[in-house]
Amino acid sequence: MIIKQRTNRGGRTPKAPINENIDATEVRLIDAEGNQVGVVAIEEALRMAEEATLDLVQVTDSDPIVCKIMDYGKKIFDEKKAKAAAKKKQKQTQVKELKFRPGTEEGDYQVKLRNLVRFLENGDRGKITIRFRGREMAHQELGMKLMGRIEADIEEIATVEMRPKMEGRQMTMIVAPRKKK
């Protein structure tokens, strides 16, 4: 007879054994208040948990097994809540790209600068790209001048993470928002 072994593919963590599912004869018991009772027989620990109308939950798999008297449903709820709070705290930062040309006019420049400021205020990083076409490659100093102007315009809210550098036919610079105090 072939017995198929189950794998943990659902991403769920294996549940801690509770009450009668604890496979031990003696356990080190911690009561509901967190006080250590000592090493007791499993039957005694189950009786104490039942008297308190709570569950006996295996905490660690040591020798002897450590069990705690607690409300298992509340424990699961608190763990889920803590996991959700940790996930909510985590912020994914994105790199937003703005493309300029060496001859970008003033109106277009102001619109793109406003967008860059908005991205930085939202906590995202900005990648500024200046694309050179044809004979514009001979005038890379215009690109450097434009990068310097952008840097000067956003210096109060951002720091330059990567200085302007040429990559093929485009010049790139990466800026990150300043840390708020």
Automatic annotation (TrEMBL):
Known role: IF-3 binds to the 30S ribosomal subunit and shifts the equilibrium between 70S ribosomes and their 50S and 30S subunits in favor of the free subunits, thus enhancing the availability of 30S subunits on which protein synthesis initiation begins.
The UniProt similarity line reads: Belongs to the IF-3 family.
Q: Residues in domain Translation initiation factor 3 C-terminal?
A: 93-177
Please classify the protein's predominant subcellular localization into one broad category.
cytoplasm
What do the Gene Ontology cellular component annotations say? cytosol; membrane
HAMAP family with a match to the protein in the record: IF_3
GO-annotated biological processes: ribosome disassembly
Domain Translation initiation factor 3 N-terminal, residue spans: 18-84
- Which GO MF term does the entry hold, naming one? translation initiation factor activity
Q: Where is the signal peptide?
A: none
Task: Please give the Pfam families that the UniProt record associates with this protein.
Answer: IF3_C (PF00707), IF3_N (PF05198)
Quote the subcellular location field of this record. Answer: Cytoplasm
* Alphabetically ordered keywords of this record: Cytoplasm, Initiation factor, Protein biosynthesis
The protein's name in its UniProt record: Translation initiation factor IF-3
Quaternary data = Monomer.
